[in-house]
Batch of 2 targets.
Target 1
Amino acid sequence: MIGESGKQVTTRTAGIASADHSLTVSTAITRTDQTDPIDPLADPLDVAVDNAHQLAELSVDERRATVVDQAALAAQAALVLAVPSPDQASGRLGSSQAADKPTAASVNPAFAHQTGIPDVSLIDGDLSRSRRWCDLICQLEPGDASLDLWSSETSLKPTPTSIPPEYRSEQPLNPGQQRALAAMTSAGGHLIWAPPGTGKTAVIAAAIQDAIATGRTVLLTALTNRAVDNAIGCLLGIDRHFDLGLITPGVLVRAVSDKTTSHDRLAPEVADHPFLLTDRAAAVMTGLTQRQAELDRAVKANQQHADRSAARSLLAQIKRRDRQARGARLLNQQKTLVDQCHALTAQITALQAESASLPDQRTAIEQELTAFAELAQQQLRHNTAVSAASQSLMAWQELLDSHSAGLDAAVAEQTDLAQRQERLAKRSILPWLARRRAQHSADIAAQRQSLAASIEAAQAPISEATGQVDQWRRRLEELASDEVMLSARQSLADQCRQRLLGLDQRQSAIDQEISQLENRFAQLAGQLAITTDDSSVITDPSTTPTPDQPGTAPTDMVMAQAQLADWQRCYQAAERSGDIDLLHHSDAAVARVTQLDAELLEIARRQTELEDDYRRTRRQLLTDDGAPVIACTIEALLDSPELLARRFDLVIVDEAAHAPALKVLYAAAKADFSCSLVGDFLQNPPFSAPADPGQTTNAPTNTSTVAADTAPTSLTAPTGHDPLIWAWLTQDIFALAGITDAASAARHRHCHALSLQYRYPPIIAETVNRFCYDGLLESAQQTPAHPVIFFHDSSQLPRRAFQHDGHSWRCEQTALLAVDIVKQWAAKQRSVRRAGSDAASIGFITPDVAQAQLVWWHLSQLQHQGGPAVACGTIDSFEPVAVDTLIFDLMQDDQPRWLSQADLSSDVSGRSAAKMLNVGLTKATSVIHLLGDWEFIAHSPSPGMRALAQLRWQPGFELIQQPPKSTKNHRQPTTINNQLRP
């Protein structure tokens, strides 16, 4: 944890220890003010190099923990440095500004000036944004591609790319570019050292083209919109020139930060492209323009429909004819009441007719009931006969059952005797037994004869009983059929009685319903009580009574019928006058307009669906399933939730040396296959980057550059700060990887340098080679016949004086000299344009913001008078990549100034001056005008000034001395022949 006051209060050690080696990577934010101070002479670049070498000895997992821990602690330290203590805040910000809401403009410059350290915070405009960056860094999970940057192992051998041969035939890549391209499209981490003009944009475009062809996803990011758009513009040019068809909607998306409220910060080629920006890509993919146009046409056609105008016309006619409190409008609205009255009359009539028919129906039913008068007596007699027949049948049935039982017993006995006789009839051997059997057989025969007589005698009563039983059964069947007939007649009688009861109930209901209908009719008729005078005049609908507001109800039906007849007369009069037809047409038109309004609601629903589809597609373009190539600034990675969660096969970070190392590491950590950091560590360092990298206004706004007497003199970590963590805050990503000059770049296994430059003439390349690039640069251009570098000696300017302005300097005399050069250039350009040649560009650059603002003010006045538009700014805020003609005010008089210390082997101030001088010299593509004190520069010992002094005897250089100007006689400046020797 880190205290808000910037002091270290808690110990946190990120150490890596093993049996083979033990390395304490950082004890950041662990020391207190009582600990031994760090050696102030220790060079943090050397510390970073040693750290990189030690990191290279670790395994991938150990490097992951080490690098991430250092970055997280550095992010926390940067946030602490951005927030002053309450005492410091109250002393610098005043009572009106809260100490817990510092801004980059108010807190950091003052804090840096008082403490003597550079602006190392992550603040980009507000503290909450800085905390978001800090959280991202603390949660960083880099892949092996970004961690490979810290490894001493040789990267995977670069593989050939699939760039179409027709591209190489038109503008072949030089060997250095080819090696860089092969590295950028191969696995692992790569550092591409790309000095200005060496074709890094072409290599980046080729790498993206190869990724698209091989189906890999790419993140192209940089600190500024300009760098991102330059690479996109090159890629578009290749795709357009060779008609490759690679860049289609949804393939390459230019994501813009939510803080970018307009497209003024983007290159015109990108801002005006039909489908590069995320919004436009989503619009093209969803057909937003066409679908929106169809909806707009539908809305326009609906709003301009003839029915709407017809309805308005009819309503206007009605309004013009509306004069009375009652009239045709009321009649027309009461037409419904009249129809209800007629319906009620018809119902009443029908009910009365039904009521009149009920007595006849009752008479008929009563006549039917007379036929059933004897039905009860018949049922009584029938029941008596049924009872008697049933008793007789039961008696005879009992008798029959008795005789049948005796007969059955006799027959059984007879059968048994027959069986016994049959057994006795068998012969026996014994005589006495035979005689006994014969006697028994004779007795049985006698019994059988007696039983046969008895059976024969019983047949007669059984026959008689059987006949009687059958007779009474038939009688009961006859009575049963009579009972069915009687039941049917009883049912008919019951039905008649029910019909009589129903007629009575219906009569009562009819009487009640007629009473209700008559009351309702009277109410409705009361609402029709109107004045018949001028009844044909249309009236205001607001005066129309409603059914809930009945008029005077009549006392009887006769009065109601009279009122209804009176209304009918008035209505017929309104019909004859045409008012009723006009109202009917108006109602029909209003109904059609209602339908049109419903159609508008449906169009609105389709509009909502279109917007949802567009927003869904826009979000999807930035997700893993979206566009394969995303191009955005590093800041945009923070603003887009989709990009925060997305990873890529290839990550290319342009201007890597110009961006804070922590942000570069965060962008690089999104790489899964290949990570390429492209930049020039000998150009502007990270801590001098503009607070608003996308600023495009000609007025210089960056105030991070300070004069030599207030510039930092060392980047050595102050007491209490770990040097490794301090290095993450103050150095570029190349220095953290151990690359600080041409020699260390050549030794680094992952670094690939571009050396052949195409932008500026050889004399400029030779100059920057002397004090920056150690002979690395080669020029692809031929030495031009015209002078390239003009040095305007300002030592003889009258009243030349450098004035201190805040943390910067300004000089009115050299500012006016720059304006004179612009006027001369503009006069020459007018003749060039008359000759039909292409127009050139011009810019002004200087290390001091006060001088840049002064020159910008003079040039803006000149432009109001018809002068040219001139790009103007400080070295680190100059927007164009390069201009044809550059005016470079060195802000150098006869005293030591910042740029006069240009020395890469010196302290921080000297290295910063050398880098700024390098930037200024390489902004010109054709001609550069240097303004300064030649005598002082010629005798200055710094390598940068010696490189300028050596121009004195080279072809392509002219020294122009500015003689004192007189108010009476203005003399032209004299030119010293560059071939003369003193």
Note: The mean pLDDT is 77.
Target 2
Amino acid sequence: MKNLKKALALVVSLTMLMGTVVFAGTFSDVQDSHAYAEAIELGVALKLYTGYEDGSFKPEGDITRAEFAAIVVRMLGQEDQAEGAKGATKFTDVASTDWAAGYINIASSLGIINGYGDGTFGPNDNVTYEQAVKMVVVALGYELAAGGNYPVGYLTIAQQNGITTGVKGVNGVKMNRGQVAQLVYNALDVPIMEQTGFGTFVDYVINDGSGDTYRKTLMTEKLGVVKLAVSVNESYELSNAKKANLVKVTIDKAYGNKYADEDYDDDRELAAGKGLEIDVGTTNLKSFLGTKAVVYMAYDENSDDKPVALYTTKYTGTTDEITIARSNIDDITTDDTTISSNTVFKVKYYETNNATKTSTFKIRNNANVYINGYKDDSNASVKTLIKAAYGVIRFVLEDTDDDEVDYDKIFITSYKHMVVDSVNVSTGRAKGKEGDITTIIFDKDDDRYSTTLVDKSGKPVEWSSVKENDVIAIQERRGDRTVSVCTLLRDVVTGEITESRDISVTDFNPDPNGKIYTIGGKDYKVNPYYADSKIKLGAEGTFYLDIAGRIVYFDGITTAKSDYAFIIAAGEAGTLDKVTQIKMITFKGEVKTFEVASKVNVSYTDGTTYEENEQVNDEDLLDDTKPYALKDNSNNTIKQLVTFGLNSSGKINKLVFPNTLETGKADTDYLTLYKTDTSATYDLDKKKFTIDGTSVYFDDLTIILQAPGTDDEDDYKIIPLSALVEDAAAWDNVSAYDVNSDKVASLILVESDVDLTSGATGIAMVISKSSKKNDSGVTVQKLTAIQNNKTVELLGDSNSIFNSISTGDIIVPQFNSKNEVNGFEVIASIDLDSEGKVTGNITEAPGFDDGVYVKGDNRYTFSKVIGKKGSRIELEIGEDLIIKGDVSIYAYIESGNGAANKAVIPALGYDVFDIDDGVYYDASYDEIAPVYVLYREYDEELKEVVFFLFDER
């Protein structure tokens, strides 16, 4: 099986899908690998004990003597009798009102418990190993065989009958809940001993199926439960509404029960080879369709009702399986020129959504394929059936001698979708506005259709509750009638697409948009049957998701927000009906022109007072005699800071001018000036401006607005905090507004051009390229890179082009005041051939001379590595590189073509490679090509080191 024998690789969150076997444990603290996992879950299914409300079982937790006595009574099927047996007990420490009184009375009457001999039982004492074993042995009828020899006789009987197998108990030591579960699990399937005859003819027989006996156990006799290994052949869910909860199975093995005896009544016989219909109950038995399972079922030999599954688990004969989201299957190929039933296909798939390299396995074209619960009989090729699917696919290997393939059965859970436009309950019709199904018919009187509607947890839902824009995922099967199981989805994402990047689109994996979109920091793909030109960078609204979490519908919205803005221009527009307009740069960095409502509320400074919310006419804003005027007496716009509000029509209905009367005081009730100066500096490390000798702090919410007072709107911008550099020059004309009691400013206004140039700018190692909308709404190119020992986004300005840059290239970016890259210098680039493959060569910048390039206070060195000992790197140019102190270390690792190659911060630092007798090895000690190094020193101090590791050629 090569590298495929792994744990279940479910790579998409579709846990409620039919056809997906769910092996996850019932309890948060009991994984499938837990030693007592099956024992614990079976005991809970049989209602012998329960877990806790927080979803845990606490297998290491204590269990009392009273609790264990109750479990034994339940094993004997006497739960109801225990309720009637409540009342006074023979033990002095068990009150009649004690919750366990009924259980203790029954256990005492059956001789299962005797107490301590002093009249007490110790109900709250922890049950010990030998005490629990004794109770179980007596419950099984082996009291006489144990000879009353406590504890040795009981422990011996338990060991001989497998009761203590796998139970890690110790005499005299308290048992935990997990050990008890395993002890009970073992005891359920042990043949019980029964008394035969009376008086002088008393005898005892072990009902193990030998002689004239049937095999009888606590499970079959007291609980009415039978354990079988079955092949699940058919699920009626999509074919017969009356049998929707039934599956048809063939019994492969009957685990020792009386119904398996060949002499038993034929109508009730449960022997190997016999067919059976089982009600799946609350188990996942349907998900084993086409494979084998072990099922514990409630069986009533005196009833015509179908047996009901109580617990199911994987049959050990199934050796391997893997579940893959259809979207993660990259391609299916074959070397055969002619496709036949014996053709072997190679399936290429991604193990996770984020994987960059594919894995493969093989499957033959004649593999049995099940689609939505039914075996496919279309004679279509395996590739065709998988390609047409949308959902998840489970590949299973059962007992097979075919060494050429890894799996021999395929289970496809495939969905279509409909976005609801309207629902008519009277006619039984749901109409769609989007999706690959336009109409769902749920009319119960129309025999051509059988349609059920459930929520994501599988609970029935009324069609009358379905609303416009709800998404319905449909599993459908067409035959003599159309049978559909519809899942109602209401998964939405509200926000804006802030980033988009191209994805690989092939004939096998089509995509209408060919992109991944980022909304609210998470990435989303689009349903392959939904194409909408409105889904693009900057689109804002509600995105509706299908069952795979992909966008299947979009409803755009328009929003307006009130906050800081700087007025650039103001005036009148129109000829007959004049309207006042204001051009501003908003707090989002957008330069926009707004129309002013006919009435607007203004707050402003008037002499020695601050007037609030005075309602004025829009034309009054252009009257230079008013204290809130936007124009001076020369009809020039007064460029100034404001906050503003919009009405429902998107017109300005509120303007707040700064309160200059409170200068130097902490105040956020108004738009308040705190400090201003013609020159100011900042300390990036302390996040502090010094304005007029006063410290003003900033944080991640502080807006830094550049507004130089020019007529060129491109000069106005929001400066992101990430653009600030430690050794920048002083800024001119800086003011702080809305400073709180902690001296943190909400706004820093800079009425000059800002210089963000730093001589210490670090190199950037490119990880990937994509496109993104900047704060001005312009689509620009983006580099994801490693810089200053962390992953960063480098947005280009509207003129920047990064087409010539590849993964692993080393650049020095140059930034404008918007923190956009408006230029860059390539220090070293990875050479690619005409097919885009890495050649193993590196091109240095033209300034290098004998491996050294000096620019200002920066010194770059490039060389082949010829030796290494610890942090001392021996270079071909005759120098030694010694890495110590606070140095950023990066690595370029060739691992395939294009995006598969990695630019990383290596976990092993400079130990990412080694050299032994002139042979180069990577961190996994695989042989590689010679290693190259590039490093930068600033002001004679080592800052960054980049290692280049290529595949051996």
Note: Residues 82 and 102 are 4 Å apart (CA to CA).
